Known about the structure:
Largest sheet of chain A: none
Number of strands of chain B: 0
Oligomer: heterotrimer
Number of domains of chain B: 1
Mean pLDDT of chain B: 82
Strand content of chain B: under 5%
Radius of gyration of chain A: 23 Å
Low-confidence stretches of chain A: none
Shape of chain B: elongated
Number of helices of chain A: 7
Number of helices of chain B: 3
Number of strands of chain A: 0
Amino acid sequence: MLDDVVFWVLAVVAVAAGVAVFRVDSMAxxxxxxxxxxxxxxxxxxxxxxxxxxxxxxxxxxMEMAIMAIYMIMFMGMxxxxxxxxxxxxxxxxxxxxxxxxVVLASGAVLIPWPSRRGAPASDLTVxxxxxxxxxxxxxxxxxxxxxxxxxxxxxxxxxxxxxxDRLGDDLRGRVDADQPDGAGQ
Amino acid sequence: xxxxxxxxxxxxxFSVGLYGAISQQVVVMVMMGLELMLNAVVLAAGGFWWxxxxxxDGQVLLLVVITAMTVEMAMGFxxxxxxxxxxxxxxxxxxxxxAQ
Amino acid sequence: xxxxxxxPTSTAGIDVVQTSAAWAPLAAVLLLATASAAASLDGxxxxxxxxxxxxxxxxxxxxxxxxxxRQRRRTTLAADVLLWRVGGxxxxxxxxxxVAVVPFGRWTLGDLSVGVVWFNAMDxxxxxxxxxxxxxxxxxxxxxxGYRFLALALAYELPLMFALTAPAVGAGxxxxxxxxxxxxxxxxxxxxxxxxxVFCAGVVGFSVWGPLSSPLGPxxxxxVLAELSGIDRWLVLAGRWALLTAGSAFGVTLFxxxxxxxxxxxxxxxxxxxxxxxxxxxxxxxxxxxxxxPRVVRAAWLVVLPLVLLQLLVVSVVVVGRG
Lengths: 186, 100, 323
């Protein structure tokens, strides 16, 4: 009973915050509305006993949105709150697509005869996740690490304007002033 | 709280995210739409896991989705930064050309 | 069907029992009392450094509290009041949520099976809180303060995460009660000194304190604090002290054996040790200069991160070796 109440409150918060992302006229509010939506979903995962994944979702998404806010403000280039203008294109068709998608997904969710539950959750899900990752699903872990490493390098290659070879010369013998703006990454 | 209700909520989140991803003009806002869609996927995967087959494998899938989100964000920010920088440089170059 | 926190299933040593949420106000009172004692100590030290009497300094935080409670709120043009208030008030709430997983003797408010990750999630939420408090007032120096905090956070957070991992690996569990029980024979600080040091630096970081206090720097006219007044300012100032206290309590729990100690009851030991660590942090911070964020980032990523990873390797090898 209590679970149901908590679930519905979190569900309403998640969807309402999701809608708010595209309704509010402030970049900070949009970003943190998305963060609220994520936190609500993370807490719903706790209802499914997925304690580790729920808390990790909250952790990572709050962190990501804190960084996202910076990018939002950097790239929007103007403040929609001060200069009201429509930042959307093809509003009507996208709304139609979204509604159709919802109807299809929702009817699928309601109409498909879902099978009944097979098996029971392990007594300690965090332990079982760890054992799966370090045992039978080791390949997933290894792939994920390689992908994440490639992401770090790829993102840096794309985003860094001047690497250390540009600043210090090919043999990295040059001097860099620690107090220069880009001295931190030497 | 049944599988159906969880999936309904996830469908609503997914549709809102889809609307944002299609309709927004700014790269970062499009990314927010994509994130919201992945958020729905996380919720739906959690629901499937809990109500259909609570085995460890499902948890691994969730972890992969969360990883996909971070990868998407990191690459998205990197590309957005690159676009922003080159476009700005282009604009500055144009201004220099005008002065000559 | 399920519950947010599972029942006590501690594997070894003391059993930690989850109390009802009705005890939360008591935890809040304890947290605030310890935090205010630390604030008084800091005030006293500041007064002595300036040649005033110790007593006048010790009462300074209380006088400031009384002043702020009566002060009228100052408003700024086009402030985002909602986000500003949320950001300012969250610090205190987050500190309380952090101590919720700390076992107080045999009792804990939330016996989460992932208590260590919970603590980490709460200190990441501080990123959002401080930045929102800087963004809210629509003031340049506040916003620069918020940005500075995020830069510092990117520096201290990753080492802090790995420092938190070390005791969890040592205990083989993410449950805080198990980490305490695993220190029955030997406190973790003895064989994880690097992780402990890095953890303390992280605590200083998320409390925006001492060397990492540039987001509130006088060069920004107070930074995040610049436009705060009245009760809002008090909430942020008290929130920082509470975060420092919560961090000390968690550090004591993870590294100093929690409530373990002779003669006295564990509750008292926990309070004593927390007070000791807190006092040590206050004393050390008073002697350190404030660092500029770029320097902190470089040191954190190039020196501290490899060091703490090495520490983690040592811990893992020891754990595997013990079998």
